[in-house]
Design a protein that fits this description.
499 residues, mainly alpha, 25 helices, transferase, transmembrane
Length: 499
């Protein structure tokens, strides 16, 4: 009787992709841990499966990020404005414990705050996350003790989110589990994870991407709706999904996803909208009313102009720019020689929003890290981008140190901070260019070089086109249309367990 490994199904089952064989940076880096991976690490026959390894690495890197915040935890948050910047360990979390009424037991959105803010300026699901953390925070001791506890409680909850993100990315591309290490080892991810509460939305978005890759359109929609209830950016993923489903004729899956997203968003938001509309709407009005802020090219223009644009003008121009970018992505989707992968377009639309927005907080890089790992799983390009983001992370804190240190002028002056912004913009643009190149020249796409079509695409994976424009509508006669999973995948990888 033949063994399970010798059955016809097993013989044609695609081999996992070995990054240490296909990526020179991954191969070089593997020498630090004993050399390239072998068959047992890839096939999951040992306890240390890719999912477990990557989850542990993500938790370890997150813990290093907590250690990096130690100078602030031990006093810089409380005893000096500039020291939390010179140590690059600033976090909104302890400051907002008292500043947004959690220390006083105020109910977000329902109870008014003292001062100009009036109400909590975060989406509802993030407000719930913050409130739950305040319930778990001991109310005894000094306010400093409570703020330290509040940060630690939030850090524990956010660590769970980080592990979820790493696991979801690892499992989204079934043949490329080790691409999850891009997320787990991303330095900017570890440095910015506890600045704010963005990881909640990122985790829900990563889980939604996993569900879509498994063909579960309703679960994808529900999770994306919840993610949008925690942060605005996840809703932008419905745009490229609409165009992809248009090109592939997969309307039922798209409508199901939109229905699930709308229902989930309403379930979370509707109670607060009905009973505390003014508090609920604060997030949206604040986003419109806030002026040009840190990290954007709009700030460079404003600080170098004798007559800077008004907030209304910037809102209008930023909206027009992002709409132009979205239209460009849609055009690219419909005219590309081969239908782009969902992760590629998801990365491009979120990056377009970040690049054109009037503010770029350093933790916004968290939105892009999982999408970048799925869109362009190439260590060289990913690390180039990460270096740029770490440079910006240091630049903004040194700039704030300069502006808050009085006559001492410790840190980075305005011109230096503008260069840091430029490095961030160029790094993100570079990765966007590489993704666009992969779309226009799919033979350069490392995911498709391994024999896959769109492993994060769910119902789109291997689907035929029903609507295309331009040259894509008239492919050359020698071109072949991908018509389903290739049973010859197993021949492309080594069969002896070598990397």
């Amino acid at each position: 009787m033949p063994s399970a490994e010798s059955t016809p199904e097993r013989l044609h089952e695609p081999d996992p992709v070995r990054p240490t064989r296909d990526d020179e940076i991954a191969a070089a880096g593997s020498e630090l841990i004993g050399g390239p991976l072998g068959r047992r690490a890839l096939t999951g026959t040992s306890w240390l499966t890719p999912v477990r390894v990557i989850a542990l690495v993500a938790i370890g890197m997150f813990a290093l990020g907590l250690v990096q915040k130690a100078p602030c935890y031990n006093g810089a948050w409380f005893f000096g404005a500039s020291s939390q910047y010179t140590h690059a360990c600033y976090s909104d979390i302890p400051h907002l414990y008292q500043g947004r009424g959690f220390a006083d037991g105020l109910v977000p959105y329902f109870d008014k705050l003292s001062g100009d803010m009036e109400y909590l300026e975060y989406p509802v699901l993030t407000g719930v996350f913050m409130e739950v953390a305040s319930w778990l925070t001991p109310g005894s001791g000094s306010i400093q003790d409570q703020e330290q506890w509040y940060w630690m409680v939030n850090a524990g909850m956010l660590m769970a989110c980080a592990a979820v993100i790493a696991v979801c990315v690892t499992r989204t591309h079934a043949r490329r589990p080790w691409d999850g290490l891009l997320v787990a080892l991303a330095p900017a991810f570890a440095l910015t994870a506890t600045i704010n509460w963005d990881l909640l939305a990122v985790a829900l978005t990563a889980a939604a991407m996993l569900m879509w890759s498994r063909g579960r359109s309703l679960a994808f929609g529900v999770l994306l709706g919840l993610a949008t209830a925690a942060k605005l950016y996840p809703v932008f993923l419905l745009g490229p999904l609409f165009v992809l489903c248009w090109r592939a004729g997969k309307w039922r899956a798209f409508v199901t996803a939109v229905g699930g997203a709308l229902t989930a968003w309403l379930v979370v938001n509707l109670p607060v909208m009905l009973f505390a509309f003014e508090g609920w709407s604060k997030f949206y009005t604040f986003s419109q009313e806030r002026g040009v802020d840190f990290g954007s090219f709009w700030l460079i223009l404003a600080q170098n102009s004798s007559d800077p644009l008004t907030t209304d003008s910037v809102n209008t121009l930023a909206t027009l720019l992002v709409v132009v970018c979205f239209v460009g992505v849609a055009g690219l989707t419909l005219t590309a020689p081969r239908r782009p992968r969902f992760a590629q377009l998801a990365f491009l639309v979120v990056a377009a929003f970040i690049l054109t927005n009037k503010v770029y907080s350093p933790q916004y890089v968290l939105w892009l890290v999982p999408l970048a790992a799925l869109a362009r799983p190439k260590w060289r390009d990913f690390l180039i981008w990460q270096v740029c983001e770490v440079a910006y992370f240091l630049g903004i804190w040194m700039y704030l140190a300069y502006t808050t240190s009085g006559d001492a002028h410790k840190g980075l002056p305005t011109d230096g901070y503008h260069w840091a912004i430029g490095v961030h913009l160029l790094g993100t643009l570079y990765l966007c260019v590489m993704v666009v190149r992969d779309i226009l020249m799919p033979e350069r796409d490392v995911v498709r070089q391994a024999g896959d079509d769109d492993p994060s695409g769910g119902v789109l994976d291997g689907a035929e086109d029903v609507f295309v424009l331009g040259a894509a509508a008239h492919p050359p006669e020698h071109a072949t249309q991908f018509d389903g999973p290739q049973v010859e995948w197993g021949k492309q990888g080594a069969t002896d367990g070598s990397p």
